[in-house]
Amino acid sequence: MQIQRNGPGARLLLILVFFVLSFSQSLYLVCAQPESMGPGGPVVLIVGSGISGLAAAEKLHKHGFQNIKILEATGRTGGRIWTHSFAKGLVELGAQWIHGPSPENPVFQLSSQFGLLGPGALLEENQKIDVAGHPSSIPVVYSSSGKQISPDVFMSIVDSYTSWLDKARNFSNSDCDPDASVGSFIQQEIVHSSQEWDKALIGFNMALLKGLLNRECCVSGTHSMDHVALCPFGEYTMFPGLDCTLPKGFESLVDHIKAQLPNGSVLLNKEVKTVHWNGSFQDNDSHVYPVQVHCEDGSTFVADHVIVTVPLGFLKKRTMDFLSPPLPQSKIQAIKNLGFGTNNKILLEFEKPFWGPNCSFIQLVWEGDSLAEPKKDLKQNWMKKLPIFVVLGPPEQLGHVLCGFIAGEESEFMETLTDKEVLSTMTTLLRQFTGNPELPPPVSILRTKWYSQSYTGGSYSYVAVGSSGTDIEILAEPLPTDKDALTPLQVLFGGEATERNFYSTTHGALMSGRREAQRLISRYPVLEASLSKAKL
Question: pLDDT tens digits, residue range 87-113?
C-alpha cells in the first residue's frame, strides 16, 4: 500500500517514527549508562601516577569527568619515567627513548604538541626510517683481551643475528611449539650457521653472539632470552622512526600532562593497601559507592570506579591481597604467567672521554664466553652480563657520560653492592677492555635499583614461555567483566603490561590509560552530551 507523500497518513507515520526514535534514544541512554552518578558525576580513583594513570585522568577530565583523584604511593609523579640531575645536566633513570618517534606513536604526538622534541626528531625523514628495533649506528667494539674489534668483523655477525631475530618474529601460534623460546630458536640458528664458519673463528663468533644476546636481554627486560616465548614474539609492534630523547627530560612530558588536570588531582605518599570492590560503601553524604580504597596511612576513599595502573611486578608481589574480594583465578594465572624482569642502568661521568666524538655506544665482548648459562657466581661474574655502554650527550650540556645497561639476576645482584664497589668494578672493567691500565676512573656514578623499588619490583614486562598475548588481554579485563554492556564497571586495569602489542613501552602505557578512560567514557553518554552542550 502506498502512502501519499503529503497526506494525513504520511504525517501520522512521521509522528510515529519520531516517537519510536525518541523512545529508542532514551532506552539507549538508560542501557548504555548502567552506572548511577552521585553528586557531581561519577567518582573515579586512579592508583598510580605514571604516564598510564595520568593519561587516563587527562582524558576523563577532558570528557567531563570532574571527580578524579590519583593516589600515588611515592613522593613523586611519573612512575617509571624518572628524570634526574647528574653530571652537568639531566639523565633518565627510567624510560630513556621514545621508541619509534613517528605520527602513529602517541608519546611522540604529545611531545611534539607540547614542543618538547629536538629538531632531529621532527625531521620527516627520521620519522620514516624503520630500524625494526635494531641499533641505528655501528658501535665501537672492545674485547676482554683489550683489543678493538674491526667493525666489519662485528657487523658480519650482527647481520646474521639480526636476520635470526627477525625470523623469530614471523611465527604464529598455529605453527609454533608453545614451549619454545626466542633464545632456543636463535641458538638453533647459530648451530646451523656455525657449520659454515672458519673453525678458528667459532669461539670468537660465539662470544660476539653471547654479547648480542645479553644486549637483547636488556631490550626485553629478562634474565635470559630462553625465558621469552617464541610464538607471540612477533605480536610486539614497532613504530618506524629513529629513537629519540626529550632534551628537557622525559619528565617534562609528565609535567605537561599533569598541568592539564585540576589542582589537587594527584595525592602523593598515598600508598594503597587494599582495593575493596563489589560492596556498598557510604560517603559523608550517605551516597553509596561500590568501591572503597584503603591506604597504608589509614585514609580511605570511596568511588564508582578505580583504575589500577601499578606495574606488573607490584601485582606479582600483591596478587592475593591487593584486591578484596581477591582477583579471579584467570587474572591470578595471567599475572603469574607473564614475565617481568629487571634492566638497570649504571651511569658514569668522566672528566675526559676515552671514546671518539662519533662514538654513540660501546659494545663489550668477553672472549671465551659460550652460549651456555654460566655458573651462578654472581659476586665474581656479575659484570659479565653488562653488554653495552651508551654515550649520552650532548657533552656541552651533560658532560662526558656513559650509560651501561645490565639485565637479569646479575642486575639484581648489582643493586646489593655499594656505589664504591660498583665504581671500582667499572673502572677495572673499562681498563681491561680498552687495554689501558692507566685509564682514569669515573669521577661520579649514579645507578638505578628498579628491582628493589617497593612499587615496581623490576623494570617492565615481557611475554614469558608458558604465557601468551591472551594473558595480557586477561590482565586488561575490568571487574566485573566488561562482556555485558549493562554490567557496572568497578575495577579497571592499565599500565604497559596490559597492552598486547605495545607492552614494555611508554607509548603502550599511555595507550592503556587512554583505553581505560574511553571504557568509562562510553558508559556515560549523558555526561558526554552535557559537556558538548556546555561547549556550545
Answer: 999 999 999 999 999 999 999 999 999
Of the pLDDT bands very low, low, confident and very high (cuts 50, 70, 90), residue 84 is: very high
- The mean pLDDT value for 121-130 works out to 91
35-39, 205-209, 527-531: range with lowest mean pLDDT: 35-39
Q: What angle do CA 258, 520, 46 make, to 5 degrees?
A: 40
Residue 457, sorted as left (phi over 0), alpha (psi -120 to 50) or beta, turns out to be left
CA separation (Å) from 185 to 156, 160, 205?
Answer: 20, 13, 17
Nearest to 444 by CA among 139, 143, 84: 84
pLDDT band at 12; cut points 50, 70, 90? very low
Strand pairing partners for 390? 361, 403
- The x, y and z cell numbers of residue 71, run together, are 593516589
Contact between 361 and 177 under an 8 Å Cβ cutoff? The reply is no
In the chain, the amino acid numbered 131 is: V
Side chain identity, residue 206:
M
Domain 134-237+343-447 classified CATH 3.90.78.10? no
pLDDT bin (cut points 50, 70, 90) of residue 36 is low
| pLDDT tens sequence across 159-176 | 999 999 999 999 876 778
Q: Does 76 have pLDDT greater than 60?
A: yes
Sequence ranges of the domains in the chain: 43-79+247-337+464-535, 134-237+343-447
Q: Closest Cα partner for 157 from 189, 205, 190?
A: 205
> Locate cell 611475554: which residue?
463
Task: Encode pLDDT of 365-397 as tens digits.
Answer: 999 888 877 777 899 999 999 999 999 989 999
Helix orientation angle between 106-113 and 506-521, rounded to the nearest 10 degrees = 90
Greatest Cα pair distance, the chain, in angstroms, is 103
With beta carbons less than 8 A apart as the criterion, state whether 149 and 364 touch.
no
Cα separation of 403 and 461, whole Å? 22
Q: Are 222 and 343 a contacting pair, CB within 8 Å?
A: no
Query: Looking at residues 52-78, what average pLDDT do you find?
Result: 97
Task: Name the grid cell of 356.
Answer: 671518539
Amino acid found at 140 = V
Q: Which helix (H) or strand (E) holds 312?
A: helix 312-317
| Cell 632534551 belongs to residue | 247
CATH number of 43-79+247-337+464-535: 3.50.50.60
- Give the three cell numbers for residue 145: 683481551
Query: 284-318 burial, b if ≥16 CB within 10 A, otherwise e?
Result: eeeeebbbbbebeeeeebbbbbbbbbbbbbbbeeb
Strand pairing report for 43-47 and 67-71: parallel
